Amino acid sequence: MIFSVPNMTCGHCKAAVEAAIEEVGGRADVYLEDREIEVSGLPESTVLSALKAAGYEATPVEE
């Protein structure tokens, strides 16, 4: 699943997003320049909740 994370703008944001996803048992490939992440191993609702708890709003991207 791919998610748009518009307020992910720097290396610190990238690390925080990766940590939030790993904390709930998933894996994230972060594309900072596109402000998107690709997540595997988690349901959409878990990804959105983990990112929100870390301070990042996200929306699923249609593939």
Could you characterize what this model shows?
Residues 1-59 form the HMA domain. This is HMA domain-containing protein. GO terms for molecular function: metal ion binding. The chain has 63 residues and is of the alpha+beta class. It has one domain: Alpha-Beta Plaits, CATH 3.30.70.100. The chain is 37% helix and 24% strand. It has two helices and four strands. It has helices at 11-23, 44-53; strands at 2-4, 27-31, 36-40, 59-60. Strands 2-3-1-4 form a four-stranded antiparallel sheet, covered by helices on one side. Strand 2 (27-31) and strand 3 (36-40) form a beta hairpin. Helix 1 crosses helix 2. The mean pLDDT is 95.
Can you give me a brief rundown of this structure?
By secondary structure, the chain is an alpha+beta fold. It is built from two helices and four strands. Helix content is 37%, strand content 24%.
**What is the total domain count?**
1
Q: What is the molecular shape?
A: globular
Q: Count all strands and give the number.
A: 4
Largest sheet composition = 4 strands, antiparallel
Unreliable runs: none
What is the alpha-carbon Rg in Å? 10 Å
In CATH terms, what is the architecture? 2-Layer Sandwich
Give the helix/strand layout.
Blueprint: E1 2-4, H1 11-23, E2 27-31, E3 36-40, H2 44-53, E4 59-60
Antiparallel strand pairs: 1-3, 1-4, 2-3
Helix pairs in contact: 1-2
